[in-house]
């Protein structure tokens, strides 16, 4: 195995978030309120390019690959992508972030192809509110998809909900009732100021710390992290099968435990979701003989990774919406 990818702050990278498309069929108010508009004419990474990319990362200690987007399952070769990643024995976790609209139909095929973990976005459990947030009347279909995922063999499903003041912030009791007897890790993600969303952010942002204090006061306990865990602080409770996760990018020290890198659907390395630049890797994904050179370019790029993001200064870097490189 090649030496671990490490940055100048001695952060080690065990986790790659790989976008395979920036296309999305939802119109979430906090991301794509006007719907998807393609920004690049570049073709998305092919299955062979993805296979080479995964090999380079796995040889350097990356154990978890998250397939993200846009909506990754819109790709007609999505199953082939999962299978190609799973063929690398060094990869222990193959995860997916999805809006869930195809889960009920296809989740068994995903499981059989080697997918090991699913995050599905459910910003509200109220049908009308879900439609107002996402622009899609798909809540019942997505809930059925979650049930189908359990039937297919998944032991736990992670559910993402973007936390928004006066929209879904009062829904904690409803969410808690839902996960009482279900092995669901419900993850509240703080609304982030991205691109042109300043007005929306100021109106609806709510600190996850408010939810955290409610959880602690009612007996929820913080769970220790493992090497490949994402940024969520996860809480458990003796009376619940489910768990609660909080992703709080505005909390002090959020970036100190960063263990993940991102590659866009066009093969560009992003050192941070809110970075100012990207590094093109695609010219080194042409053939299998370029792996060492590819790894060297990634290592050199890590010297540019900043110690922290600048969200507190309303600087989200070049990220205009989360569908560009995945959230």
The CATH superfamily name is Aldolase class I
- Write the H/E string, N to C: EHEHEHEHHEHEHHEEEEEEH
Total domain count? 1
Uncertain segments are none
CATH top level class name: Alpha Beta
Q: Find the structural class using helix and strand composition.
A: alpha/beta
Q: What is the overall shape?
A: globular
Walkthrough of the structure:
With 327 residues, the chain is of the alpha/beta class. The protein has a single domain, classed as Alpha-Beta Barrel (TIM Barrel), CATH 3.20.20.70. It contains 9 helices and 12 strands. It has helices at 47-59, 78-86, 103-113, 127-134, 139-152, 172-179, 198-204, 208-217, 291-301, and strands at residues 15-19, 64-68, 93-98, 117-121, 157-163, 184-190, 221-222, 233-236, 243-247, 260-263, 268-270, 279-280. The chain has a 12-stranded mixed beta sheet with strand order 7-8-9-6-5-4-3-2-1-10-11-12, covered by helices on one side. Helix 3 runs parallel beside helix 5 (139-152). It is globular, with a radius of gyration of 19 Å. The relative contact order is 0.17. The model has no long low-confidence stretch (mean pLDDT 92).
Strands, helices and their partners?
Elements (H helix, E strand, L loop, with lengths): L14 E5 L27 H13 L4 E5 L9 H9 L6 E6 L4 H11 L3 E5 L5 H8 L4 H14 L4 E7 L8 H8 L4 E7 L7 H7 L3 H10 L3 E2 L10 E4 L6 E5 L12 E4 L4 E3 L8 E2 L10 H11 L26
Parallel strand pairs: 1-2, 1-10, 2-3, 3-4, 4-5, 5-6, 6-9
Antiparallel strand pairs: 7-8, 8-9, 10-11, 11-12
Helix pairs in contact: 1-2, 1-9, 3-5
């Amino acid at each position: 195995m090649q030496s671990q990818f490490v940055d100048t702050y001695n952060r080690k990278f065990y986790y790659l978030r790989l976008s395979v498309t920036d296309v999305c069929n939802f119109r979430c108010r906090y991301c794509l309120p006007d719907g998807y508009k393609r920004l690049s004419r570049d073709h998305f990474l092919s299955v062979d390019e993805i296979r080479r990319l995964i090999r380079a990362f796995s040889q350097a200690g990356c154990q978890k690959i998250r397939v993200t987007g846009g909506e990754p399952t819109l790709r007609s070769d999505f199953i082939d992508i999962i299978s190609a990643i799973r063929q690398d024995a060094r990869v222990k976790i193959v995860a997916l972030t999805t809006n869930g609209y195809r889960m009920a139909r296809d989740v068994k095929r995903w499981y059989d192809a080697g997918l090991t973990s699913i995050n599905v976005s459910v910003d509200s459990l109220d049908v009308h509110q879900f439609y107002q947030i996402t622009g899609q009347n798909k809540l019942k279909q997505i809930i059925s998809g979650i049930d189908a995922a359990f039937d297919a063999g998944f032991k736990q499903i992670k559910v993402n909900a973007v936390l928004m003041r006066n929209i879904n912030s009062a829904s904690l009791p409803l969410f808690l009732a839902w996960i009482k007897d279900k092995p669901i890790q419900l993850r509240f993600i703080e609304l982030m100021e991205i691109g042109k969303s300043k007005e929306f952010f100021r109106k609806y942002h709510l600190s996850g710390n408010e939810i955290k204090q409610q959880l602690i006061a009612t007996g929820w306990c913080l769970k220790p992290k493992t090497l490949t865990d994402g940024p969520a602080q996860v809480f458990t409770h003796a009376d619940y099968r489910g768990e609660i996760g909080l992703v709080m990018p505005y909390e002090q020290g959020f970036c100190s435990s960063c263990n993940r890198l991102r590659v866009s659907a066009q093969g560009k390395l992003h050192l941070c979701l809110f970075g100012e630049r990207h590094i093109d890797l695609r010219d080194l994904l042409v053939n299998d003989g370029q792996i060492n050179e590819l790894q060297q370019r990634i290592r050199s790029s890590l010297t540019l990774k900043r110690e922290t993001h600048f969200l507190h200064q309303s600087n989200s870097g070049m990220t205009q919406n989360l569908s560009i490189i995945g959230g």
